[in-house]
Amino acid sequence: MHKIENLATTSPITTQAGYHAFLYLALALVLYSIRVRTLFDIVQWEEEILTQRREKREQRESEIIEKSIQLLSQQGFLSLRMSDIAKAAQYSMGTIYSHFESKEDLLIACAHTLVLEHQLLIQTIQQRPIPAIEQIIATAQCNWLISMHHPDLIEIDNLSLMPSVWRRATRQRADQLNQLHVALASTFLAIVEQAIADNLHGYQHLEAAEKSQLAHTLTHGMWGLCVGLASTAQSGYASNLCPKNSDENHAHFTTNYANFLKGYGWQEPNIDTVFARCNTIAIECMKSTTWFSASEPAIQ
Question: b or e along 200-224 (b: 16 or more beta carbons within 10 Å of the residue's beta carbon)?
Fold first, then answer.
């Protein structure tokens, strides 16, 4: 009985203490949620600021690269100075060097932009419902047209492959360009493998490994032929072989490239018709690019 009385006496106090504890706990939870929400807002705000800064930096870098490609087309790599780029892009020298450690680093970035254009070309051609061999010819036609009408842009790409250039660039940019070239070669290699299966005769008996080796050999040969033909056409030494007349230039390319493909088993009776059709496709696909869309060099 005594214990019951004590319990009755202390119950209101206990209830009141529990109520206060509940209020304190609720208040603590509210304050905690406010603090968490505030921290979340701060983190989100910081992420937005970082995103804005990154986008602004990427935009600024794109502007510098665009002006650099234009100046490289006008002046060439050896004559171009970083101060020329800063003036044309309307940025300080410090800003230019905050993006690119050297002129070679900037050249690699310009080449990366142009190789992305080549990648877009191949992807656009791949979307056309044409045989793999015609995708190869259309791609080669694009390279030929670019070489004829934009030798200044081809020079940027060629210079970026020189060890004396990429070794002076940052490792990150050199690696990015190399990875892009590898991806581009892999895409073209897949087209060549399809052409071996569908359009070239005499290889059905080969094992998979042998067909893969043949595809690599063909890919290297096609690339070398394109580079060699373009160099011949652009060379003053060989101007008698490639007159300035565009039709004769194109005939020079068509004859040599067709003979190369025939040597690997291409048995097309209407070669001129196929090359004409692929040339039309090449011109149409080049319109999807930024730097190669004009039929004449953008910078004189």
Answer: beeeeeeeeeebeebbeebbeebee
Neighbours of 31 (CB within 10 A): 10
Phi, psi of 266 (to 5 degrees): -80, 120
Q: Identify which of 140, 153, 127 has the alpha carbon closest to the alpha carbon of residue 73.
A: 153
Instruction: Give whole-number Cα distances, 174 to 153, 179, 279, 291, in Å.
Output: 18, 9, 33, 21
Domains and CATH numbers, the chain: 1-99 (1.10.10.60), 104-286 (1.10.357.10)
What is the per-residue pLDDT for 171?
Answer: 94
The answer to whether the beta carbons of residues 132 and 199 sit under 8 Å apart is yes
Task: Based on DSSP, count helices (H) and strands (E) in the chain, helices before strands.
Answer: 11, 0
pTM of the model: 0.78
Angle formed at CA 12 by CA 11 and CA 18, multiple of 5 degrees: 90
Cβ-contact 82, 97 below 8 angstroms: yes
Closest CA to 101 of 109, 112, 90: 109
Determine the residue type at 30: V
Report the chain's C-alpha Rg in angstroms. 32
Tokens, residue 134: 């015609």
- Pick left, alpha or beta for residue 90 (phi over 0 → left; psi -120 to 50 → alpha; otherwise beta): left
Beta bridge partner(s), residue 266: 200
Pairwise CA distance, residues 25 & 123, whole Å: 62
Tokens 């650099």 found at: 68
Kindly list the averaged pLDDT for each block of 10 residues, start to end, along the chain of length 300: 47 61 67 67 70 83 94 91 93 92 95 94 93 95 88 90 92 94 92 93 89 92 83 61 61 87 92 93 91 58
